[in-house]
Amino acid sequence: MIKDVCLAAAHMLGREDEADALSAGDAETCGKYLRLYNLVVSEIAEEYRRGDYDVPPAGADLSEDEAKFYGISARVLAYGVAAECAVTEGLDVAEMWDTRYKSSIALAPRRPVRIRARRFV
Questions:
Q1: What angle separates helix 16-24 from helix 27-47, to the nearest 10 degrees?
Q2: 3-state secondary structure of 17
Q3: Cα dist. 98→2, 47, 84, 95, 109 in Å?
């Protein structure tokens, strides 16, 4: 679920108060993390072309299943949410989480590409 990804991101950042607020369903905290999650999903779908989506799959609430991308785990999504949170709030660990997220995306397996053999006439 999206909530699990957001909880993992809050724990990665050491934000136990926000993790507790997410678990309790605090509207402001849930809205904040849902926006961060949607930014990450949009970036993966558009920039990294990981999904078969015409429109990036945005989550409407935290109880939905997370978006499925080929080779991208929920943990990588959590890295992205943590990176977005750290960058937007100007945290000292922003560069570390951004690097970890982008490295994870780069190392994730991609769909195999098949090129049909051609015959020369």
A1: 100
A2: helix
A3: 20, 15, 8, 5, 19
90, 112, 117 from 74: Cα distances, Å: 24, 21, 36
CA distance 59 to 39: 10
The answer to whether 36 and 85 have CB atoms below 8 angstroms apart is yes
What gap in Å lies between CA 113 and CA 69, rounded to an integer?
16
pLDDT tens-digit map of 41-64: 999 988 888 777 777 788 888 999
Q: What is the largest CA-CA distance in the chain?
A: 69
Length of the chain: 121
Q: What is the pTM of this model?
A: 0.88
Would you say residue 14 has pLDDT above 70? yes
Beta-carbon contacts of residue 18 (< 8 Å; ≥ 6 apart): 10, 29, 33
CA dist., res. 19 & res. 30, Å (int): 10
Report which residue type is found at 20. Answer: D
Q: Where are the alpha helices (DSSP H) in the chain?
A: 2-12, 16-24, 27-47, 74-88, 94-107
